[in-house]
Amino acid sequence: MKIDRLVSIIMLLLNQGRIGAVELAERFEVSPRTIYRDIDAINMAGIPVRSTTGVGGGFEIMPEYKLDKKVFSAADLSALLMGLSSLSNIVRRDELVHALAKIKSFIPADRAKDIELRADQIRIDLSPWMGSPVIPSYLETIQAALRENRLLTFDYIAHHGNKTAQTVEPYQLVWKSSHWYFQGYCHQRNDYRLFRLSRISNLRLREETFAPRGYQKPILDFAETWEAIQIKIKLRIHKSVMDRVLDYCAYENFSPDGDEHYIVSFPFLENDYYYDILMGFGPRCECLEPAPVRAEMKRRIHDMAARYKN
Predict the structure, then answer these.
(1) Is residue 260 located within the same domain as residue 233?
(2) Long-range contacts: 125-130, Cβ < 8 Å, 24+?
(3) Where do runs of H (alpha helix) occur along the chain?
(4) pLDDT digits (tens, 9 = 90+) for 46-91
(5) Please, which residues have CB within 8 angstroms of residue 248's CB and are 6 or more apart in sequence?
(6) Are 181 and 196 within 8 A, CB to CB?
(7) From CA 83, how far away is CA 306, in angstroms rounded?
């Protein structure tokens, strides 16, 4: 985990003084190139690290620089503790303990209780309620590939059930809308792609390494695009499915229709994903308009009923 490694490097430089790049690389089980990138990141964060060459050379924090523990506010330390605690289900336990211990070393004794109280006010649990039991092991494999710049191979189930064999250079793990993804350069398509972990099988870490190329971060914010292409459809729902419908639209879109029903202005795209959402609400949801969407729902319901006739 990069943030843990950066904090560890800073602590080592503060406590031990000068350390060589090769020694740091061996200690953290990464390449010297990765250590040089880490040092650049530490410098960019405002902690001046200089390098010296020759016998006894290495990296050291400039002697005139003093790291003041008061540089972190109570809010800063609470946010760090909260973030690290929330990664407990995907980060190896020893890494987590070391990172938390280092962050806590910056907390003055007279502020410890208040800071830990603030950190506990928000809990982020990234583990799913249900789903594939292999996801945690896949996360560890991908993290290893990210650390060591190693290729990954796997089978992938794409749209409409199409199964393909993939060889990918991994660049970033992404948590988006209750699912894990990773962004990588696909050798089959010669382009960057976002892969959903739940659709991966037979994930393997290859021995071959790759030289990182100019990385393109995935586009994750589609709010403006969705706003431009979505339509509003009118649903009549029973109150018993209101909690589920609220997962997809705001409470302001509901208006009462008698004692037990609501009329809902529901955001919609005409594709299988959104029709499946409506089908999932079952007989307690009826699409009132527009007519083409209502007709398509009738067709899909008829096809499903026909499948169960015999």
Answers:
(1) yes
(2) 125/86, 125/89, 126/86, 126/87, 126/89, 126/90, 126/175, 127/89, 128/178
(3) 2-16, 21-28, 32-44, 74-86, 93-104, 112-119, 135-148, 223-229, 242-245, 272-280, 291-307
(4) 778 888 877 778 888 887 665 555 556 667 766 766 666 666 555 5
(5) 266, 267, 277
(6) yes
(7) 50
Whole-angstrom distance, CA of residue 121 vs CA of residue 123: 7
Decide if 269 contacts 240 (C-beta within 8 A).
no
To the question of pTM greater than 0.70 for the whole model, the response is: no
Shared domain check, 103 and 52: no
Give residue 168's identity as a one-letter amino acid code: V
Kind plus residue range of the DSSP H or E element containing 186 = strand 179-186
CATH number of the domain residue 195 falls in: 2.30.30
DSSP reduced 3-state for 204: strand
* Unique residue bearing structure tokens 């590939």: 145
Nearest alpha carbon to residue 11 among 26, 27, 29: 27
